Amino acid sequence: MTDQKNDRSEMxxxxxxxxxxxxxxxxxxxARRSFLGKLGKxxxxxxxxxxxxxxxxxxxxxxxxxxxxxxxxxxGFSVPGKVDGFIYLNDRPIxxxxxxxxxxxxxTPFPNMFIRNNGVPPAKDGxxxxxxxxxxxxxxxxxxxxxxxxxxxxxxxxxxxxxxxECGGNGRAAFEPSxxxxxxxxxxxxxxxxxxxxLRDVLEDVGYDKDKAVYIGYKAGDAHLSGRDxxxxxxxxxxxxxxxxDETLIVWAMNGEDIPEQHGYPLRLITPGFPGSASGxxxxxxxxxxxxxxxxxMTGQSYRVPAYPVEAGADVPEEDMVVLEEMPVKSLITxxxxxxxxxxxxxxxxxxxxxxxxxxxxxxxxxxxxxQTWQKADLQRPVNKFAWxxxxxxxxxxxxxxxxxxxxxxxxxxxxxxxVLPGWNPRGYGNNKAHHIDVHxxx
Amino acid sequence: xxxxxxxxxxxxxxxxxxxxxxxxxxxxxxxxxxxDPETSLIKAPGFETVKNNCxxxxxxxxxxxxxxxxxxxxxxxxxxxxxxxxxxFPPEMEEEILDYLETYYPPR
Lengths: 443, 108
What we know:
The structure holds 2 protein chains of 2 kinds. Chain A is α+β, with helices and mostly antiparallel strands. Chain A is built from 7 helices and 26 strands. In chain A, strands 5-4-15-10-11 form a 5-stranded mixed β-sheet. In chain A, strands 6, 9, 12, 13 and 14 form a 5-stranded antiparallel β-sheet that branches. In chain A, β4 and β5 form a beta hairpin. The longest helix of chain A has about 35 residues. The two termini of chain A are about 35 Å apart. Chain B is mostly helical. Chain B is built from 5 helices and no strands. In chain B, about 15% of the residues are buried.
């Protein structure tokens, strides 16, 4: 039973008017209409009878609540320095995520940063950073230029920004039928601080034909899993409009130190707001392309979504799949951990993070009655564009008993996280369904 | 109304009867065999062939996390053969691999 099935139920008669009457939702009519439009009938069905299934679903797919699955891990495997509780999904290639309560740091430290590898990273021991080079070339480049990391540091303005990276498939585990790929639950997201230079400055230094340039593609130093030299593990990129933004960076430091081996040592791209795969690690080359980049995992169905909504399980022709660009608005409750027990008289301070692929989260609301009524949380502005935003709300519980605290973020376009699963797609990208925690309220 | 009831009753019975039976069969199919500690693969017929062909480049965890239909398993194999450097299988070996994956790693 999935909540997508709930969407197709016959409980669609619950009108928006009824929802509006019960919902102390937001201040602005536009955001409110947008939310109701999106939450719509599925949300009503959910509120009326779907919660049993919903709770079961969440139990199934919040691995953070499934201690046995976490404890199982991968026997004998861990990445040195990662926090206890890090959830390893795979050891070859290495992939792992965090339960939400381990994403509570304002700036994500190395032990709590998720890992998504497509191939085998170059060993840090074997890299002399003074010998590492970045070569910029491509059909639309005026010339080919090779920079050392020192060249980058000395030639261009150095910038430091806190920028989140989220795997495009974060949340995939909730989709049915199961899309291929790592079964990410909630925690393939992190927001460290990065130090480097703007990609735009480097592109300008090389010089390129602005009429011809369409896309940048990266070349990286990780090896293909098969060991074949003629195959790239991954070679993605972004359109020029994104490449020249103020926050699109080439970086050599994470949280003020060398980038850790698993996160791209000694040089990587940061392409904010896009799926993490656009932020290439172990960066060796930038191609200024005269077409949409066609490197490994740019084509076929990888990091692509249908150009139109499709039924769950549909076969979508490759020509109808378009590149996944900005990630949808999303949030997490990072404190307390789900399952917490509180005294009714104490109330509960709930805290979390919110982020959006377009760079601004405008509002955050919490609900303790499955979305019937909403309370506005205190949402901070980001330290810079594309840093995640901290939020908190103090919650009073009217009775003792079992509650779920739900959080939904609204972005600057008025788009709000759904409480049901968003549209199924063949590879399971962009699941921004609202997160919740379980709370036992005692006398 | 009457005809609806007639239709509903078998449907409800079907849900009560078929769903647990299917789930039970699947659990039994997997529980008859041990799990290989190295790969986490179920040591059922076809295991050696799958281990030798499907865990050379990547761990089995890349594909045992969830299950798929035979059609999707075959698509995965063809994608790896087309773009990821996977070798061609003799037809009987491909059948053995697909039989194993379809039986022990079906959609869940």
